Amino acid sequence: MFRHVLVPLDFTEQNREAVAVARRIAAADGTVTLLHVIERIDEEADTELDTFYARLEERSGERMAAVLGELASEPFASHSRIVYGRRAQTIVECARDLGCDLIVMSSRRIDFERPGSDWISISHKVAILAPCPILLVK
Questions:
Q1: Per-residue pLDDT tens digits for 10-27
Q2: Which CATH code is given to the segment(s) 2-137?
Q3: Tens digit of pLDDT for each residue in 57-79?
Q4: Domain ranges of the chain
């Protein structure tokens, strides 16, 4: 069993299975942290996009609350974080900063008919850079 499991979410259907896996392998006295990373289009503060990002963060919060609600009856503690940053880098930093001993994240299948087009996915980057084991769920 794992004491602190990080589950990055992008709120796609694939995430359901990653959450289910985390639910099964988290220690009863452990913690599951759900993480959603909002990546800005432009790194500089652009006041024209503030309303867009505020709505995006609000919708993410609603979706995150729904997933947390599904975990409410579990024996482990569950928390959520919504942060801004580059997705792969932020996931790795969060895992390190929280002292996670496992990352469970969904991963899409690579299309071998289009070599090189999408072989370096976010989950691949995280798998290479993570400070702890990572379990990719397809």
A1: 999 889 999 999 999 999
A2: 3.40.50.620
A3: 999 999 999 999 999 999 999 99
A4: 2-137
